[in-house]
Amino acid sequence: MKSTAYTPPSGTSSASALAEENALLREQLQLMQRQLDWFKKQLFGPKSEKQVYDLPGQDGLFQSGEAPLPETPAEEERRTIKAYQRGTGKKQRDDDCLNDTGLRFTADVPVEVVEHLPPELTGPDADQYDIIGTKTTYRLAQRAASYVVLQLERPVFRRKGTEKPVTTPAPGNVLDNSLADVSLLAGLLVDKFQFHLPLYRQHQRLQQAGITVSRSTLTNLVKRAIDLLRPIVDAQTESVLRSKVLAMDETPIKAGHQGRAGPQKGKMKSGWFWPLYGDADEVVFTYSNSRGRAHIEAVLSESFSGTLISDGYAAYARYAVAQENVTHAQCWVHSRRYFIEAQNEHPERATEALQQIALLYKTEEAIQAQGLTGEKKRQYRLDHSRPVVSNFFQWCRDQLAQGGLLPSDSLTKALNYVLSREASLTVFLENPDVQPDTNHLERALRPIPMGKKNWMFCWTELGAEHLGIIQSLISTCKLHGMNPYTYLVDVLQRISQHPASGVANLTPRLWKTRFAENPLRALIDPRHPDRQSKQREVTVRAH
User: Fold this and answer.
1) Residue 143 vs residues 147, 186, 199, 210, 536: alpha-carbon distances, Å
2) How far apart are CA 357 and CA 389, in angstroms?
3) CA distance readout (Å), 472 to 145, 218, 284, 288, 343
4) DSSP 8-state assignment for residue 280
């Protein structure tokens, strides 16, 4: 584009007119700069709040000097490793190295023994050799599309002297008259909702393994399995609502077909997941087709009383004001993001604000390092964080009092944002159980936006509800360091034999203390009782 010098219109030769026009052009330039920043974010993606550095030689919207260079990392402490230990001829390895290949695995990983014999021990002169030892080497292997068809042989028998035959009953199955073993049900759920592998890709993998099953069958299996888990999530929701400190957020999703005629007939409706994070490390994903305050009231209603932590969405604040037994706390990280957006226009003042907020997190790191809880944690925050918070809000008021900032200025918006939320941003100082942000909830809800990049949308709103049910269990399992597959294999079998009054014991948090040490196994698992009683040691010989 050819650049031309700006020519002021006639009648603007006076100094006042030029100053007014200059201010107008400056405001327009700032607006265009913010729009450009927005386009950059859409193009490159808001991956994190850390500085993004351009790759050398890569063209883009960024100017050459816009992104700062990364700091040179401190030189790591070097460790001297001896290649061989003198006198032994063996490599010097770390103590935690399991074997020669450095492979580490838990006891749950199946190990298949392959006996590799040399020609001398298999030929006609094999009896001339004595085996004096065995050298073990480990290799990590993979089977393509590890699906297995279980052929259950059930004898038909009768007692001698009688004519009535008896058929051995088939082992119990989760779904009546279904071709799916519990291992397949748990695998479908984990592959799709934990590892984000859509059912159509799992269907392709089945076909590649030589198994013919319709896509609709897989969809129906997933639906029926999740329906069995619904009472467990309902019990977990009740546990979350009993929390004294509850974090809540919302994230959009496309769910349900609009059913329109015309050019937009294929458009999907917008829905929202509203995750709840309780103080016992349990998370529940509730679904609504609205982002209004009505869903907050419907979910929390009269069941919750305590401190509600959220971002700056006004619906949470309006709900908390109307409830006498609810205290509203807001997130410092969301406040921090407004100052990050203001760095381009006001680098010095925005950076100063970010540095003051960073002092709060240094205090939180010290609290975590010292393991402080309860009253000691509260007093430490009062001694170290309260002065920082007071100085920060006074600094914000001073910036506005100085003047010179337009109402549409990004720094003005950042200052007004935090000052209007001063009361809710200081709740964490008095309550040691309240975190200064909602980062723990943001991490827990990540599977939803990550999954959307793979399965894109939920075809029906019921499908969105099912997604919330299974994701509530899988995410809570990960929060408690449990394997979701092991949990689902056990719980899907245990539901039919567990009393309805004790369904809360099947939630991941309580299941871990009651059943995790001896979970129910799938029939394909070598540790299944029926297989252990008949198990024989099988040796696979390499040819």
Assistant:
1) 9, 19, 20, 14, 22
2) 8
3) 27, 21, 5, 15, 37
4) T
Residues 6+ apart with CB under 8 A from 72: none
What residues does each domain of the chain span? 332-437
Distance, in Å, from the CA atom of 431 to the CA atom of 375, rounded to the nearest integer, reads 9
- pLDDT tens string 384-396: 999 999 999 999 9
Band (pLDDT 50/70/90 cuts) for residue 310 is: very high
Q: What share of the chain has pLDDT > 70, as a percent?
A: 81
> Contact at 8 Å (CB) between 459 and 219?
no
Round to whole Å and give the CA distance between 296 and 291: 9
* Residue whose C-alpha is closest to residue 446's, from 283, 289, 264, 215: 283
- CA nearest to 310, candidates 301, 467, 300: 300
Q: What is the pLDDT averaged over residues 197-215? A: 90
Give the pLDDT score at 542: 37
Q: How many residues does the chain have?
A: 543
Rounded Cα–Cα distance for residues 506 and 509 (Å): 8
| C-alpha–C-alpha distance, residues 451 and 285, integer Å | 14
Sorted by sequence, the CB contacts under 8 Å of residue 286 that are 6+ apart come out as 237, 273, 274, 275, 276, 295, 299, 468
> Is it the case that residue 89 has pLDDT exceeding 80?
no
pLDDT number for residue 48 = 53
Over residues 278-299, the pLDDT tens digits come to: 999 999 999 999 999 999 999 9
- Is the four-CA dihedral 441, 363, 321, 391 of positive or negative sign? negative
What is the phi/psi pair of residue 277, to 5°? -120, 115
d(CA 451, CA 407): 39
**Taking all residues of the chain, what is their mean pLDDT, rounded to a whole number?**
83
Structure confidence at residue 8 as a pLDDT band (50, 70, 90) = low
- DSSP three-state, residue 326: strand
